[in-house]
Amino acid sequence: MSITVISGAVELGLIFAILAMGIYISFRILDTPDLTVDGTFTLGVAVSSIFTVNGHPFIGIILSFFAGFLAGTATGLLHTKMKIQPILSGILVMTALYSINMHVMGKKPNISLFDTDTIFTGIRSSLNKNAANLIVCGIIALIVFGLLYLFLNTQLGMSLRATGDNEAMVRASSIDSDKMKILGLGAANSLVALSGAVYAQYSGFGDANGGIGMLVIGLASIIIGELIFGRRSVLRGMLSAVAGAILYRFVLTIALKLGMESIDLKLFSALIVTAATAIPAIKHYGEKRKALKCAE
Prior knowledge:
By secondary structure, the protein is an all-alpha fold. It has helices at residues 3-29, 37-53, 57-80, 86-104, 121-124, 129-152, 155-165, 167-172, 177-203, 214-229, 234-257, 265-295; strands spanning 110-112, 205-207. Helices cover 78% and strands 2% of the residues. A two-stranded antiparallel ribbon has the order 1-2.
């Protein structure tokens, strides 16, 4: 593979590492299946695109973060206050976000950002495109990683982690677990939207259907990383999510180089998640058969 191809895989890996860290909060820390992700990723794309077209790319990035937080909060409120199952809550918000995203984008299915100033424009004037993209994506991913790690080690962050580990114990400790869930889902979706915002400016266009399959991509990144690095601590879990996102992009790049069609990438992603998730069951089955043979 050429340097350009490798650089592109790392750049996309860093962007989707932000997505993976968001999904890590909901699926690993809160232990809550949140299907809002596909909608909030597109929400980030929509907000970022519309502000970039109007000459405010950095404001678009910031507002995408807060828009994602509001979307995640809506899911949390439906789940905790309306007593709707988390999966259904996510589906409801995700469905509503499709219409909201279309309105944000001015009822256009896509927005072109070519020949428009983005967060990458300034540094691209000083360095070549690949180096500039890598630096910007790396800085954003590093900032998100550092702030998230610091937050999860504050008293509020530890309360959030405790809610996912043992909600009954948290309630007994006079901590409002509902507020923790709302906060966690808000934080998770804010990072997902941020990932979408950066991706839109990186790719040069905003697509109203760009979020389809992002949940699977995030899960694939987390699972691949955990298979290699484990998740015994929060730090290791976060590092696994970041490393898994980059490795996942390399796997896709290699698959495309070997002749896989781009329309098959979603199927390939689903198969990766299925295979990785099934590994513990396969191991258990193998150990069981081995024990039966020894007993004979």
